[in-house]
């Protein structure tokens, strides 16, 4: 299927690794010019080279911290300055620390809110006029299946990410009809984040070993964790006119892990 986004421009945040990188790769393969982002310059440069190998458009890497308002504005400015517009905004971010509620303090809560929610607020605000200018502007927020079903030892993710869904639903109404907004809700995918969570679970005694931990998180009807590109391809589809009547939705990509009917 031709996604009909060749020549468009995208900003994908937190994309030097994992799900953001996979989303940027999927867009770049379709001929979209992409700005990618992360804090660590070496990791970012390596990701740019990897994506450029399969891209048919341009790939620009811009270092920036998503908790910094000015660096967020600079990401949008670079995309528009280099590519002449911004058609697709894909928001990802790092994950908040894991652990039980009583081990979190106020600082942890504010930090999680800043990283996961305020980054999306600021990106949407900066991107909106440019998204409206193009034909078929889209926003896709990468969040977590934790908004559908609370996950053990992830109180910050379970709580704070709900705000992103409320925001996404509101944007799908306020930015329409020219801009659509949707969210993807990943379950376990093979990225650095899932390795980190399993390692922390082993330290807390929740899994007997790392291997056991990976088996535990892959406990779903498909009996495996997701390939990041499976999520990336969905993000590219949601960014394309091929999904033109999908708006304000939260799509769970978890191999059927989540038990909720809807
Ligand atoms: N993978 C999963 O199984 C899974 C499941 C559910 C939800 N999620 C969520 O999906 C999101 C992405 O996860 P992932 O698996 O892609 O993780 P990942 O492979 O660890 O990648 C995280 C990316 O975010 C960047 N990043 C982190 N903090 C940043 C900041 N303050 N400013 C700019 N960039 C930042 C990292 O680069 P630098 O560190 O260099 O900045 C990296 O590029 C996370 O919120 C995660 O919790 C993941």
TrEMBL record:
Superkingdom per UniProt: Archaea
UniProt-listed Pfam families: adh_short_C2
InterPro entries assigned: NAD(P)-bd_dom_sf (IPR036291), SDR (IPR050259), SDR_fam (IPR002347)
Family: Belongs to the short-chain dehydrogenases/reductases (SDR) family.
Protein name: SDR family oxidoreductase
